Amino acid sequence: MKRWKDPFPQTPQGFHRRVERTLGGLEDNHMKHLRYRKLAIAAVAALIALMAATAVAVVAGSARFRQALTEGGADEVAALVQEVHRPGEGADESAEDGFALNIDEIIWEDDSLYFTYSIHVPEDGSEYLVALYSPLLNGESMVYDAKGWVSPNFFDDHAQSALVLGGGESANCGDLLTFKVNPALRDRAANALYLRADFMKADYPFAAFHDWDSEFGLPRPGAMPLIWENIEQEDLGNRTTPEERGLRKQIEAAAGEDGILTVEELTGTGCAEFITRREVRMALDASRQEQVIYDGVRETEFELNGCKVTVESFRMTHLGARIDLRATAPAGLTEEEGMRMTSEVIDPAPDGVTSYHYSWMLLREDGRPLPAVDQGSTGGAGYQPLPDGTASYHFSVQIDGIIPLEGLERLMLVPRQPVYDEISDSFHDEYLLDWAIMLTPLKAPAQSARPAATLSPDAQAAFDRAMKGEVMTLLERRTAAANWQSGDDTVTVYATDGGTWYHVDIHCSGMMNARPWDIADAVARGKRPCPDCIGGKRDPAEWEEGENISW
Amino acid sequence: MRQAEFTERVRACERRLYRVARTMLPTEADCEDAVQEALLRAWDRLHTLREEAYFETWLIRILINQCKTFYRRRPPEYAVPADKLPQPSAEETPLLDALLALPQKPRVTLELRYIEGYSVKETARILGVPEGTVKWRLNRGRALLKDAIDREEARP
Question: Cβ of A230 under 8 Å from any chain B Cβ?
Fold first, then answer.
């Protein structure tokens, strides 16, 4: 492929200076966030020195997960967990027609709300479009947190807002969603979580829909983003009929410049037929939490390729798991042979420069992955020769995420190695099943639930509305924020950590990286109500257009 | 990856970062802000990078996301005042003018593919879209670009 000659002007000095300034200001805090990936043989001496320290280079995922797991003690796992759908028991919301939307599990920890959902369509060979709307908490859209990247819109980046199921594809799908929410809401008597999906039958070979490329986000109230991604233009002649090409033009016309269609607009083109809607309503409250903790495993020693492996600790909750192991290699092995037999070691890639290593993964007994936000293995304090000629190596595996623990009887711990494929010039993972270790987690005694608070009459009324899927308007939120007094029920506002103002409009004034706050916390931190979106400078008539409302 | 290596890798692809940011954002100031945010975010999320061989494409994806976020935070009628627009320089070419005038999706796709030299697969990975989508956008983008250049050349 011939590259074009670079048409851009020289990199401006301002850009270069900004890059240098940013790089110069980075904190070399690899102990805070680095997942320890490589164990350089040449660095063994340094690692032996590290053996004396108790710290292990473990940082993967959110600090809150680690806090929950490492502080110890069941009382400190302050997570609200609700098993609303137990795997294997069938869908709660499934109707006889085969269309179903379920929320399977919810975990709420501090300001992070996680839930898994699943969607089902009939397995009748037909292809269906499913439009999944942004979930609402107490009538408000939540801030989507894609792997820690907080985003103001649910339909951002990795989230698919519309799906194609059935036909040649699977009739089922599910996903883990994570959101940032006002942490003070968690202890309310009841919070309304609402999720909706519309099911349509497609008469056009839609490939996929996602909002990733929407240039304008969600500009219209009720606009459910269905960005139509079509197939290769040159293939159109072979893969679509003249009728389908005509339909395509209608879709493009209906979508307009922003490429966003509501369900009504799409079905109005005749390319899709609305079939049914499914809604899920969940009341989340502090009294329903269930803390399930696994502390330890039944099997504590294994033999692995001639090495003795000891499970030093194991702990698993709905928020993640961590297992620490120590491998003792027999005498007579070289250092490299010992490390290679047990855990992480560097193997150079064919280019001689890239290196990769084994990663230990924690899977279900049948080899399926546990749903998790992040999973990684970490190096420990290193490889240490012992006086008797043997050698010891410590390593650990940590996963952070939302894990349904009911019915989880056994786990598989198995190393995975990226294997280089010269033909595709890419890596693919290979699981070394011969080295797999089967574990039986041991359940810790159950903890008692927390008592529920009560809702004020106004809050109860708002809850009832939210359970019906009604959206709280910007104007209503502005009124609530403007009238809030200390001691009143919480109000969710948006602010950046260092900002002066708190807002009801997360997009106010071009604000970036805002997250939900409890208004009481914002006030306590010295923030003031935004003169634009709370103080009333902005014309309320603008808001009637539904700006920033995702429904 | 320690800071020193991160720094070296960023410096090695600084030119690319500029071109990508400039493709997506209309002013140099915006590009500077976006790249700063992207570098900070990349440093903070470095532990999510599973294969260091993919550092550059991963960083570019972060930058593109930042540019998109930046763009979205502006009002829908985002328009830079004329006196804030970068003035055409002697270095700018008709190709660049035509490229920057394209809609964002084909614009970014063309830039990644033909100026940065990424493969269709790599471009798809950076943008998080299927390869078929990349090919369609390249097709459409080339057609639009050709139209724009033809019109420019036809002007007296």
Answer: yes
